[in-house]
UniProtKB/TrEMBL annotation:
Organism of derivation: Faunimonas pinastri
Keyword Hydrolase: yes
Endonuclease/exonuclease/phosphatase domain residues: 4-248
Cofactor(s) required, per the database record: Mg(2+); Mn(2+)
Single GO molecular function: metal ion binding
Site (Transition state stabilizer): 149
Protein name: Exodeoxyribonuclease III
Matches recorded under PROSITE patterns: AP_NUCLEASE_F1_4 (PS51435)
UniProt-annotated catalytic positions: 106, 147, 248
Domain of life: Bacteria
Residues carrying the site annotation Important for catalytic activity: 218
């Protein structure tokens, strides 16, 4: 079983890129973030023609998450992260697919920091930690996939020099990510690639793709009930080099 996460950065504007990747990579489950469409504007017919069922939560030109399943319809279990009924941003969706509970996560960016956006990021992270703890304690096989907007350590970025004030690298979100791992979650990419640089994001600015000046903010966390089934994990870097590409590349795992 192959599960991937891909911040598509606009599903309609990059639909051709997405369909090409689905055809080539053939993930069984694809978690998308930043679909950036209203609920009724998601390209479901094109997705179905590509052989995928889908659930999604849209939000106009901002945010938005989706879960695609090859040859199946994901069984939706949640459309929002619990803990704050007043939070209407489309950042979390969860479904059961072929015996695995999968979440697509778009954690707040938090910039500029300090400020209200950074406060929201940390509060959202606390809610995620609480919900993740409940999922982990359930004993179910769970994959929490998405754009966490956190560079976990200095080993996960080409250089910290230009990013030292960025919300992605601040101590508080890094500590929150570490606390999630302490619940028992396995960071799949790091598990398979413990020592090598492995990037999932390259900014459009300053030729960072051409210079391979990237970092890792897209993660797939595995519960104890599924971590021992991990066979491989990687990043489809070539997708980032295509014309009209997202600034993220898909990250993926394969499970026995």
């Amino acid at each position: 079983m192959k599960i991937a996460t891909f911040n598509i950065n606009g599903v309609n504007s990059r639909l051709e890129n997405l369909l090409r990747w689905l055809h080539e990579a053939r993930p069984d489950v694809a978690c998308l973030q930043e679909i950036k469409v209203a609920q009724n504007a998601f390209p479901i017919e094109a997705i179905r023609q590509a052989g995928y069922g889908a659930i999604w939560r849209g939000q106009g030109r901002h945010h938005g998450v989706a879960i695609l399943a090859r040859g199946a319809d994901p069984v939706e279990t949640r459309r929002a992260l619990p803990g704050d009924p007043a939070d209407t941003e489309a950042r979390y969706i969860e479904a059961a697919v072929n015996g695995v509970l999968v979440a697509s996560i778009y954690l707040p960016n938090g910039n500029p920091q300090p400020g209200p956006k950074f406060v929201y990021k940390l509060a959202w992270f606390e809610r995620l930690i609480a919900h993740a703890g409940e999922l982990f304690a359930s004993g179910l096989p769970v994959v929490l996939a998405g754009d966490y907007n956190v560079v976990p350590t200095d080993a996960d970025i080409y250089s910290t020099r230009s990013w030292k004030d960025n919300a992605l690298l601040q101590p508080e979100p890094r500590a929150a990510y570490a606390r999630m791992l302490e619940q028992g979650w396995a960071d799949a990419l790091r598990s398979r690639h413990p020592d090598e640089p492995i990037w999932t994001f390259w900014s459009y600015l300053r030729n960072r793709w051409e210079r391979d000046a990237g970092f890792r903010i897209d993660h797939l966390l595995l519960s104890a009930g599924i971590a021992d089934r991990l066979e491989d994990a990687g990043v489809d870097r070539r997708t980032r080099g295509e014309e009209n590409a997202s600034d993220h590349a898909p990250a993926w795992i394969t499970l026995r």
